[in-house]
# Entry
Amino acid sequence: MSTGKYKWIGTRVDRPDGADKVTGRARFGADFNMPGQLIGRVLRSPHAHAIIKSVDTSAAEKLPGVKAVVTAKDLPEQPNVIVPAGEMQVNLRDITRNILAREKVLFEGHPIAAVAATTDAIAKQAVELIKVEYEVLPHVIDVTEAMKPGAPVLHDHLITEGVKPAPTKASNIAKRMDNTKGDFEAGLKQAEIVVEREYTTQAVHQGYIEPHATLASAAEDGQVQLWSTTQGHFQVRGFVSRLLGIETSQIRVTPSEIGGGFGGKTVVYLEPIAVRLSQKSGKPVKMVMTREEVFRASGPAPGGTVRVKLGAKKDGTIVAAECEIALQAGAFPGSPLGPACWTSFACYDIPNIKVVGFDVVSNRPKVAAYRAPGAPISAWGVESTLDVLALELGMDPIDLRLKNAAKKGTKTSYGPTFDTIGFVETLEAVKKSAHYKTPPKPGYARGVAAGFWFNVGADSSAASHVAEDGTVTVISGNPDIGGSRASLALMAAEELGVDYSKVRPIIADTSSIGFNFVTGGSRVTFATGLAVVNSVRDMIRELKVRAAKTWGVDPDAVIWEDGVAKPAGSNVGEFEPLTLSQLAATAGKTGGPINGHAQLNAQGAGPGFGVHVVDLKVDRDTGCVHIDRYTAAQDVGTAIHPSYVEGQIQGGAVQGIGWALNEEYIYNAKGRLDNAGFLDYRMPVASDLPMIDALVVEVPNPHHPYGVRGVGEVPIVPPLAAVGNAVARSINIRMTDLPLSPPRLSAAIDAATPKMAAE
# Structure
């Protein structure tokens, strides 16, 4: 149902791609095929850290059916330059080595060579024929161990940034980051109570159901076509261009439907290899990762350590806050350290803040974005320590947060001052909720936590076209990973004043629409939506010109209202309104096709805040956690399509619950991942969870015509601490190491339980 303010925005319309998805017509990455295509396979390192002494591909090349083999020699060397990669930053020198190892392998699963053959069986056989001579080196997996002076060093050239004077010796600490507000030490002296805790969390995977897949076709004239499952086909084009030395105009990338990404598909792994194999073989090459390859060689979210110190008055006013974070970057620098540091205390108006962060390499896959990258980790530490403070003060956890909540005018520790935000409203929504007003069931305990994400804008392009029958096509360039087609169409229909069914949203390839930044950062409904709105407004200007020509009046004497052109001023009543269909039918006589275009770098993305509350109990015999009730409140600005907003909130909460309770990368003594599959990597399923109640709070973003704020990333930030806080209150033991899996909880309970006296 519409809210009444708008005709279409706020309604729960069917999604444009819904029928294709439920009937199986939708084409995902592995569904694309071409006549005569070859199958590509990758040889991966069995070692976590080793020098590559030689690679012999001769036997593979001689195998009948093998048409091409590539190694790192087939990719040109890249400069030591940092470039954006979705929500992360990457070094071109590193990314080419991540795609195909050069001097060393740096993690188990690191690609070394690839083959293209006429069948998958031949490709697999060829991979086994490639001979690699290694000199195995000591490895390091844990972030704390990697920071120690005697740890095996991954990169001899890596000197810690952000330290003065600059170190002269290489280490695994790629970067130190500091941001401050006020004077932490002076603020701490004002405190009447001080609490401090240290926490850890393990690397976790995004858990998308569809593996990475691509199909590449390189033509004789140098043009390249790619079909890929990606969150950003313009980014794929950019990386293939840079890494292979191909002009951007020669590359056309078409995104498939995407079976999950969550940030993990803002990276290129297979695409440059597939293109080079296609160029060498003269045939299309298709590559699809196995599930094991996804786990071993694509980027998870980092693990790390977080130390938090809070100083407060006895009335709950926090006067000083400190956070120290060390994150695993994986094999190459570039963890989401900045966002982890910047979001740590962003929910709160604290006068004195000190945040220090470390980006640390180790012998793991290079990390990738995962839904609010970095923020869940710092929130795990900060929100858990806030709960410790609330317990020591005897204060309600919502009231403690309300007392210190960020508001309009709050200056953050990382620089910006907040404009209109809805954190207080979100806290109040939880406090007023039926869930919070109802005590937990006997035997259950309640946990609360809050979370923040910046949300971003960035580059977007859109076009709107009126068809001959008066229907409208809206073209954008962002893969739809959360219902954005429907949201864009709703805004277009609202702007035009036409029926939603008359608007058809299309996701174009890289040659059919202007540049669009990735689908990530909770940016698409805000930024690309703004481009769509502007393109429709551009089209409306043209529609008014066409109506003016039809009536023989000045365009200023025409208004557009309720989907029709109407005469204004002294012309009211003189002419009959003209519908889209009528204007389209006469377009050839009034100037030709009627289109609208827009391109922008969107500014003013409204930050998002969420507050989660969970009731659970811990089985003291088994350590198993049972969640009885879960509520997630979030300021979404304006819910363009409430069902998809609720779905994003619920999905993020579920992923955060999995991170809190079970998910982790488990490495053995040889640096090999022991749980590279969904059987052993335990993600939540429906039977593990209650219904997630989503409380949609709407504090419109003043920088968007429909008040949009990004939605998709905030909901994964609070669950780690919300669950941890509930567990602490359930068993009266503050667990500081994630995941809170049954073995860990059971061991902690046993250690804290007095042994029964011998009879």
